[in-house]
Amino acid sequence: MEENSMKLKKVASVVLALTMVAGLAACGSSSDGDSKSGDAKTSESSGNGTEKTTLTMWSWSPITRTCDKMIEAFEKENPDIKIEFTYYNYDPEYLSALSAAAASDNLPDIIGLQPGSLTAQYADYLMDYSSYAQEEWGDNWKDNYPDMIADQIQMGNKPGDEGNYILPVEAQVISIVYNKNVFEKYGLDIPKTYDEFKAVCKTLNDNGVAPLFFGGANGWQCVNLFTMLCSQLDTTIFDKAQSGEIKWTDPAMVEAMSNFKLMFDDGIVQTGAMSADANTNGTPAFVSDSAAMMALGSWWCQEFTAEDPATTIADWDFGFFYLPAVGTAKNPATPVGGIDFGYGITKNCKNPDAAWKALKSFSAGAGIQACVDDVNNLPAFKGIEPKNTELNKDLVEQYNSFSEDLNSAMNQRIGEPTIETALQNALAGVGSGELTPEQGCQAVQDAQDAL
């Protein structure tokens, strides 16, 4: 939130990361005040005469209100450990802060990560926590996660590196979320085919309502939509292109890129989509009935637990469906997703035992339970469910559906930072009409060939 908007622009790979930034993307679109902040290690009394261990932690996720609850739950069970948390917006603030801190050897004890490119960039600065996980959960500890999430833990590792650096905290599933009020107002049904989808969007456009509001200025929005389109053709091609098993110029990849462009040409997304921001432009339009649909993750559920939410949110007038087969595709999109975010322990950490206690809580203990009760997103660890009895019934049903779909979701993540940049730039070019689908795919392949 995964968003947390990611502007589409060429950035140095040292500050690149996949999707979901402070706002909609995968990790929070709610507006929250500053959380606990500070990155200096300090000591203070725990109340029983002993000194507390202070751990510094930086991240963009979860959103601040949820993170405060997560940290509070951990500290309640571990009164001898204090977490000093600094919250950042994802891009560019968090990425820039990490880059600067790494360059000056001043990273905090714990950092927020996404699987693939972001973890790969900082792997040399991170501790391999494998021995802790094995001691805690046994040699088969990854069985505690759905298969795709377990695979994403080492995504982007250098050849031969069997280390584990990101411990998954939350996961997500991407779908098309729709505003029920808008659909009811115009007598619309959930589209099952592309022709039906075009007809729905035409009605919305004719009435001045943004159909599928698309934040094309956010790289994560472009990649998420593209992975949905890939899944409609073959659930394996996205990973095969990353691994080099097929080229990015493979006919199937060009077809997916062509279908991406078709959604602009056919009025599925709103006019001016490539300059729109999903968080600052999309959210207000969506909750005020000015936009009918958005491509969002299960993190959208977190809006319900915000303070003083809009009426549309308080009544939970939202549903979801998976993208109908677009253009030449024969099948609707499958669930797409994976790890939203996790945490890693840096080599700067002077007390890794305490840091592991925090990560264990945030992934599989009281910390993640607090997040799930706030429906911030889905738990990556199996067997954790919301205990919040004040949640809307429809919301709970949707949340449970996302949790079930996570088990069969297609990977949305990219392991190599250079490829992520190239794909985002290619999608921006194709969406704006500056590149043909063939040229866009060739640009990504050129980047892969240069590795």
From TrEMBL:
Pfam families: SBP_bac_1 (PF01547)
PROSITE patterns: PROKAR_LIPOPROTEIN
Location of region: Disordered: 28-53
Signal sequence annotation: 1-25
Record's compositionally biased regions (Polar residues): 43-53
Family annotation (InterPro entries): Bact_solute-bd_prot1 (IPR050490), SBP (IPR006059)
Record's keyword annotation contains Ribonucleoprotein: no
Keywords: Cell membrane, Lipoprotein, Membrane, Palmitate, Signal
Residue ranges, compositional bias (Basic and acidic residues): 33-42
Entry-linked SUPFAM superfamilies: Periplasmic binding protein-like II
Protein's name in the database: Extracellular solute-binding protein
